[in-house]
Structures are given as C-alpha cells and as structure tokens.
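Action item from last week, closing it out:
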Amino acid sequence: MGFETKYITPDIKLSEYNGKPYKTEVMFEHHLLVWFISGETKLVQADVTHTFTAGDIFFIPRNQLATVINYPKDGLPHKTVVMYITTERLKDFYKRHVLIGRALPLQKVYTFRKHPLLESCLASVIPYFDLKENLPETIAAIKIEEAISILRSVDNQMDGLLANFEEPGKINLADFMERHYMFNMTMERFGYLTGRSIATFRRDFKKAFNTTPQNWLTEKRLELAHYQIAEQQRKPIDVYFEAGFENLSHFSYAFKKRFGYPPNEVVSRLD
C-alpha cells in the first residue's frame, strides 16, 4: 500500500503510509500540529534534524523549510493525525481571546512527547474519519480551537507565535541562501521567504553573488553532492535529492558537466 489520506475537513487529516522510506521537500504554509500513532519521521532542516516516533506530538510553525523522510516501523505503517492551524482561523480566535504571552519565541519545531491533553484532543478526532458524511465545520472548529487552547496553556509564550500574522520581512539574502540552498524551491518562494518580490530577489542576489540564482544554486548543490560522495562515502542515489535535485538523471548530467566525470566514478578517482 502507498499513501492513504483521509480528510474529515480540509484542516484535519489522517495520513497512513506503508512502503519504502519516502522523502519529500516541503515549505509549511500553515502551522502544523502532528500526532504520531506509529512509524517514524525525520525532519531535516538547515541546522537541525528531528526524529519523531510513536507517541510524539510536534508543532511546526509556518514558513519552515524541511526535507521530510517517512518510514514505517516495527511492522506498523507510518500513521499520523495532522491539524493545519491556519492564519485565518487564528485571526478569528484572537478576536475573541486576550493574549497571555508577548515574547516572540524562536521559529523552531516544538515537541510534546505523549502530552496527555494534546494526545486526548487529537485522538478524539479519529472516530470522525469513519463517518459516511462530512464532519460539520462547527465540530471541526471546536476541535482545532481546543488544540490552540491547549498549546497556549502548555507554553505561555506560544501566543507570541500563534498571534503573529506578519509575512516574512526583508532579511539578509546571502545568509539565508547559504543555509537553505539545498531546498528545491522556486525563485518566487525564495523571494517570499527573504521578504522580496521576485524582481528584487534577483537584483539583490546579483549584488550578493555576482551571478544568477540558478547558476549559483546548481554550483552549490553539486559541491555538496561531491563532498558527500567523496568524503562521506555516500552513494549518488542517496545524495541527489538531499542536495536539491529533483531526479537522478538530471543530477548525473549536471554533475558530469561540472566535474568531467559521472558521480559513480568519484570514489575510484580518489584511489
């Protein structure tokens, strides 16, 4: 079986996967609250890797970049309940609730292992996946509002994150690109995350690196892949995706064009 995803509303889903480890790159547009029923996930970001297993509950702030690797484990499928906590829903929530925290916490992944209140909240939606009809929006809203309320009670600084509706501001482009070049995104998305229009992004990029974004990204990704194959003894099939290439054939072509030999000859040339 591959992926099976059931939605009881557009914002609440049950995801189940039973197969080989599956990788994907994502940019989280909305806050995510995830409860692991079984399986394992590695969440690889620019400077940290998280590993989640059965019983873990974690919260991912919006506008985060990550490589996600999902695994079945211990003979059980990779199975999660996911809530999308959208900006629209949070704006409505904070029209009716007073902020209890002011400090803006770090844009990090929050882990709540086997937290009884969050686990009870997320477990309570599972019976709704067997309904033959759609779940009324009023019930879905109650469940998500319950989750928001629990998050606020667990961490008194969570309001600083949940009630922040600003879009990404203009940040140092060179620093951001050096940390995130391996994530395969459009130029428009890179621009958005650095607080720039696409035209301003390209102009500022030229000033910072004296080349085009695509040429620079390809060069950096090939250098990363070469290092991983040569120094870490990894196989080309295991590094091309993490280095930011969409498929192995394009990676092999670009690699040979850049270095003069295919990636499967790197190790032999070091002998």
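Closing note: The CA atoms of residues 11 and 84 lie 5 Å apart.
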